[in-house]
Design brief:
The chain is mainly beta. The chain contains 3 helices and 19 strands. A hairpin with a 2-residue loop joins strand 15 and strand 16.
Length: about 300
Amino acid sequence: MRLPHRRFLALALVLLPAAASQAQAPAEPNVADALARAEVTPGNLTGAPQPTGYESDLYCFGFLGGSAEPFVAQIISAAEVAEQTDFVTHDVLYLDAGADRGIRAGDEYWIVTPGNEVVSPIDGKPLGIFYQYRGRGVVLCIQGHSAVLRVLNSCTDIPIGSYLKKFEPIPIPLARKGPPAVVCDPPSGKPQGHIVYSRDGVVALGQDTDVIVDLGVANGVSPGDFLTIYRYSTGREYGIRPQGYYWVNTPPPPGLEIPRTYLGEIAILEVGDRWAVGRITDSYRLIEIGDEVEVK
């Protein structure tokens, strides 16, 4: 049945204001967008926290330890020992310990080898032994005094004689990155230290290089902190000297006041008592072992 023309017109006049009112009503706020906008401030240029590194920065680098670092077991042989001298992912290795040291099938372990002694770039005092993560493995089966391990992931070649350390996941910290230090910025007044070691012995350091610094829990440093890298540019004829395995930059002589040259930033990924692993997130100039760092 058709409506009379006048009734149809009256109905339209009633419905139009309601439709217009609905069209002009504000949209429901997007809570996530609002929170993201609220997090962006002049001192927080990146908004929401972001990962400060990658799993390989930690799982394929290493740590500083003592000369008598305790390990659960040692690799003494392998299934393919007649054909290989070094081993990689999926290879089967034999251990010198089993149930006698609490090893169980299904346990995961870091595969570790000791490396160089790391010394202070300033006074040459030892800071610890660098222990390299070669990879990770899982125990397949055990006997009383031996066990079989399969390599889950190898970062590099794994030699006979490598040690096992109980695997514990290391989370990648999340952080907000603030503005970098620039020329004429004063010191932050927070703990200061030095870059003392680099991944694979790299000498010319830049963005994405993994390093170790001589600051740690004892200095109030935590994963997710950022360090400013700087140098007192005193001239290479007396501002650099050999130390351990590197040529390192050293502070200016007493009584000589030099402004800072800012070089970049480090994101801290893992901390020990007096050391920390970090990743260089920004580099404005060539960075070297011995360059100084300061907590932002």
